[in-house]
Design goal:
heterodimer, A: 99 residues, mainly alpha, 4 helices, 0% strand, B: 460 residues, alpha/beta, Rossmann fold, 3 domains
Chain lengths: 99, 460
């Protein structure tokens, strides 16, 4: 039964995903990609559960997964924000984003 | 309220924040806030996971997060905008590998025999995560020039890839339903073969097709997270992963349409290495000096700049903006026409021009610019090639035929900035360069554009 529930959620989420962004202006293609890429780092939740469990082997794998997923999440959000900060309308100077 | 219910309610809130975040990322005015909102959703999901009773120790989690976050912030802050395609590919790969590890951790030896359902989902998470990882790393290598940008093909390549894919499925079958003694061996085979397949699948895809590949890998990284969600029966992973999977797929389809090719053709054709060169073209290349080009530009009232990958390579975006400013000060209207697949990732040119402070109203999409092209005095093509090749509209024998292009050839005068006399990524002769109203400006794009800007500066 649990499987059916999860499939249910999966399929609905897929339809929702397609409906959410049917028409994206091309200037936002890169931020959308890197922003959604950061969201795919949600696997960090699974990584934490593995790293925090009491199985030594799973712990090691989980630790590596936490490092990678955090890189994905933090790096993804920061770089997307940096990019979006550069998009600005005429006349409105963007805040300084260069490091 | 018991903690599992609390945790799942918080995950629900996270999922809602992701949905709003993605929705807002699709509009220029709200995009930055959208990214922040989806970041909040992530933070909430991470914090609430700490309450999970299955977590008995935090030292690995904290250590891992410190390492990951430090690395993430440093890379994200340091990267130049020209290095963005590589970075997106790299982060993608990390996400994929993390999902692979989450799947693997679920079956690490201490946990004993597995039900068929878990075995299946673990295999899927490992397969998708593994292919995403090495595929992205290979793409990263190609984009950063470490592996060369060209498509690598060899006879029987498709058959080899098909055999690897089949071997993965067979190993997965053994892992799920075979005897327990061989399960670890089968699992190892699934992991190694999936990693192998990611690299061999991206190998035959050339640099110009990278926008498609990157968005597809992006979609895969989402799917990998969703399958990892099935493994650990976690709804927020399923929802968030699936949203990313769907959005990545939409982007992939947009990119394919912009090249008038279907996904299978991009993935398996090895474009640019096997295609014919199209009809031989007549005419000659007519070079022009920077000085003469300046006189034409000085008289121009309407100018359209068409950037391509060459602008990124030459890092000419700041010089281009400078020239645009001079042209505007001179009374011309300046616009930038962006082809959806110009560059190496979706939206590549937009990011570079935004970095150079070009306001986004001046960046126009192909379909908005083309109807006005005949009224344009000068079209400046900077390091773009296939996306302005008129053969795509009028030569049925060209491999590009059918691809929508920016109609630079319809402008009264067209300047083409080019490093040398070679063909573009696709290896196809560009008829635009031979047209009567086209003038070639040879040399490094940055140098040429700065030279033109310099002429304007002197004359003031």
């Amino acid at each position: 039964m649990e499987l059916v529930w999860m499939l249910f959620i999966f399929v609905l989420a897929a339809f929702l995903g397609f409906e959410l962004i049917t028409k994206v202006p091309s200037q936002l293609h890169t931020p959308l990609m890197s922003g959604s890429n950061a969201i795919s780092g949600i696997t960090i939740v699974g990584a934490m559960l593995a790293a925090g469990g009491d199985h030594p082997m799973a712990g090691w794998l989980g630790f590596a997964a936490v490092v990678l997923a955090t890189l994905n999440v933090v790096g993804g959000y920061v770089v997307t924000d940096r990019m979006l900060a550069m998009f600005h309308k005429k006349g409105s100077k963007p805040p300084e984003t260069r490091p | 309220m018991s903690s599992p219910i609390l945790i799942n309610l918080a995950y629900l809130v996270s999922a809602i924040l992701f949905i709003f975040g993605i929705k807002m990322l699709g509009r220029a005015e709200t995009a930055r806030r959208g990214n922040l909102i989806s970041g909040l959703g992530m933070l909430l999901a991470v914090l609430v996971t700490c309450l999970d009773q299955d977590i008995v120790r935090f030292e690995w989690i904290v250590a891992g997060m410190i390492i990951g976050a430090t690395g993430g912030v440093i890379t994200a802050r340091r990267v130049a905008m020209t290095g963005m395609p590589e970075l997106v590919a790299l982060f993608n790969g990390f996400g994929g590998l993390a999902s692979l590890l989450v799947g693997w951790a679920e079956v690490s030896p201490a946990k004993g025999a597995l039900p068929v359902f878990t075995g299946t989902t673990v295999s899927l998470a490992i397969m998708i995560g593994g292919v995403t990882f090495t595929g992205s790393i290979y793409a990263w290598g190609k984009l950063s020039g470490k592996l060369g940008g060209k498509a690598l093909t060899y006879p029987g390549q498709k058959a080899v890839n098909a055999i690897i894919a089949l071997a993965i499925l067979i190993s997965a079958g053994f892992f799920i339903a075979g005897p327990r003694e061989t399960a670890n061996l089968a699992l190892g085979a699934v992991i190694i073969l999936s990693l192998l397949l990611g690299a061999t699948a991206v190998m035959p895809i050339g640099g110009g097709d990278m926008p498609v590949v990157i968005s597809l890998l992006n979609s895969c990284s989402g799917l990998a997270a969703a399958t990892a969600g099935f493994v650990i029966a976690n709804n927020v992973l399923i929802v968030a992963g699936c949203l990313v999977g769907a959005s990545g797929l939409i982007l992939t389809i947009i990119m394919c349409k912009a090249m008038n090719r279907d996904l299978l053709n991009v993935l398996f054709a090895g474009f640019g290495s096997t295609s014919s060169a199209g009809a031989p073209s007549e005419g000659e290349l007519k070079p022009i000096t920077i000085e003469d080009a300046y006189y034409v530009l000085e008289a121009a009232r309407e100018v359209v700049v068409i950037p391509g990958y060459g602008m990124a390579v030459a890092q000419a975006q700041h010089a281009v903006r400078e020239l645009g400013d001079f042209l505007e000060a001179n009374g011309a209207e300046v616009r930038y026409a962006i082809h959806p697949v110009a560059g190496r990732m979706p939206g590549h040119m937009n990011v570079l021009l935004a970095e150079a402070d070009v306001p986004y109203e001046q960046l126009q999409e192909m379909d908005d610019v083309n109807p006005h092209m005949a009224a344009v005095d000068v079209a400046i093509v900077i390091g773009a090639n296939d996306v302005v090749n008129p053969a795509a509209t009028d030569d049925p024998s060209s491999p590009l035929y059918g691809m929508p292009i920016i109609e630079a050839h319809k402008a009264k005068t067209t300047f083409c900035l080019k490093r040398g006399k070679g063909t573009g990524f696709s290896g196809i002769e560009n008829q635009l360069f031979l047209m009567p109203n086209t003038r070639m400006l040879y040399g490094d794009a940055k140098g040429t554009v700065s030279g033109l800007a310099g002429q304007f500066k002197e004359s003031r």
